[in-house]
């Protein structure tokens, strides 16, 4: 194994730029080409490849290019590469698992069914229909004060029903 840093530096100076250009031509990916050059130089270090003599220089260069080409081929054939999908932009955000949302919705529906029909109607129209007190009063034909009262007692009953089902504040 070659341990002399000067020999390894010279090998890098002599071949890294040409090797990088070669890999860029193969892959059209500058960052990936840099990774391949780095891995190739690491393998050269492990194998003890040097340019100590003029006759060895040609064989070292050929060895480096062969290793780089094989690394590119191996990466193209890898399972990781086949499963990766290149996206133009990152997704907006993590959506996460929707299981909790489904269970929460079922829990709320169950709690809403425990309310009296007048209280449930006002709560559902206000929170799910986004209707104002005036709109709800006009729709169901009761005074706005009655809507406010039903909303207050309906929300209180809903809070109690959710607490009974294990939902705490």
UniProtKB/TrEMBL annotation:
What's in the keyword line of the UniProt record?
Answer: DNA-binding, Sigma factor, Transcription, Transcription regulation
Q: Which GO terms describe its molecular function?
A: DNA binding; sigma factor activity
Coiled-coil regions listed in the entry = none
**GO BP terms:** DNA-templated transcription initiation
Transcription regulation listed as a keyword? yes
Q: Does the keyword Metal-binding apply?
A: no
Signal sequence interval, chain numbering: none
Q: What is this protein called?
A: RNA polymerase sigma factor
Instruction: Give the species this sequence originates from.
Output: Flexivirga endophytica
